[in-house]
């Protein structure tokens, strides 16, 4: 027969070492550490242990967020794509017309090689170079995120007569491919600084490809 004493139950203690950081902070520490490790080991192999040492977090902390090193690298790549797409959308919203918006879109992509973005661009190009598992899929997702604002520009240009694109989706993809290659975001020039005058040249190319009327 069970008896009660009337005393409050003692709460159970959690098993294991208490967490030092909340989930958001922990994840950000891992991201920042991974960028540093990628930068310092671009031409050499590196391990999860290298990232954990740089981040100052435990193995358990890492696997709370990512299933593998490749999964982390792909998450970094996609996050950068999402942030770049948000910047593009915000900047293009301030354009006076579709022609100016096209110029802004190209300028933003070329700016990936300027200032703090340059190092991150160089680091992230190595994610593709080392062929992390899933990198091609996230590359395509990130590319689609960057194309979406440009497609909106082309459609707006068609509507007001700035462009005369019979096939907005395919024409946008074609024009964007030229910009990605010229800016060093794809192809054999991946990660390299664009040639002088490349932005102006590719802008004229895109105008012709989109059937610019004025």
UniProtKB/TrEMBL annotation:
Cross-referenced InterPro entries: Homeodomain-like_sf, HTH-type_TetR-like_transc_reg, HTH_TetR
A molecular-function term among this protein's GO annotations: transcription cis-regulatory region binding
Pfam families associated with the record: TetR_N (PF00440)
Keywords carried by this UniProt record: DNA-binding, Transcription, Transcription regulation
Region (Disordered): 1-20
Residues of the HTH tetR-type domain: 24-84
PROSITE patterns referenced in this protein's UniProt entry, alphabetically: HTH_TETR_2 (PS50977)
The protein, known as: Unannotated protein
Source organism: freshwater metagenome
């Amino acid at each position: 027969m069970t008896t009660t004493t009337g005393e409050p139950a003692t709460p159970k203690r959690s098993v294991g070492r208490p967490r030092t950081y909340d989930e958001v902070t922990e994840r950000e520490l891992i991201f920042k550490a991974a960028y540093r490790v990628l930068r310092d080991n671009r031409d050499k192999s590196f391990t999860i242990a290298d990232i954990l040492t740089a981040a100052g977090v435990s193995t358990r902390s890492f696997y709370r967020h990512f299933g593998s090193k490749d999964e982390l690298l792909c998450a970094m790549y996609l996050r950068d794509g999402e942030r770049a797409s948000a910047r593009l959308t915000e900047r293009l919203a301030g354009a006076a017309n579709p022609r100016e918006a096209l110029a802004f879109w190209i300028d933003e992509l070329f700016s990936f090689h300027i200032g703090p973005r340059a190092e991150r661009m160089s680091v992230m190009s190595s994610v593709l170079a080392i062929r992390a598992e899933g990198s091609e899929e996230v590359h395509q997702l990130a590319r689609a995120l960057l194309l979406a604002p440009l497609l909106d520009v082309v459609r707006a240009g068609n509507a007001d007569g700035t462009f005369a694109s019979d096939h907005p989706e395919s024409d946008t993809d074609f024009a964007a491919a030229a910009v990605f290659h010229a800016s060093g975001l794809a192809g054999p020039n991946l990660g390299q600084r664009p040639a002088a005058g490349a932005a102006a040249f590719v802008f004229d190319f895109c105008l012709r490809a989109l059937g610019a009327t004025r």
